[in-house]
Specification:
This protein is mainly α. The protein has four helices and no strands.
Length: 100
Amino acid sequence: MDTQNPTGARPEGVTSPEAREVLLALADRLATVRPRHTIDDGRRLAMILTATFERYGYMSDAAERLETEVRELAAPITGRGTTRGEYALLLRAAAAGGAA
């Protein structure tokens, strides 16, 4: 256990390496599989949930922390017409520390 951070929560403004990896993996998938098809927020949430639970197991504390972090970093999809390829660019920007 980290004595400086006993809850395991990430410091404000710091993106974990695991969250970056998930964001980039999702971006790669979106950019290579049907990049011209549209994506909605339900699909975004499902992809995040699947990616984080595959990494840490279903309903584990670590998976839930990672899911929360990735959801905070990956901008919601609010309008119609956003393509998977366009959203991949946003995820890559978020992984690099830019605003998504």
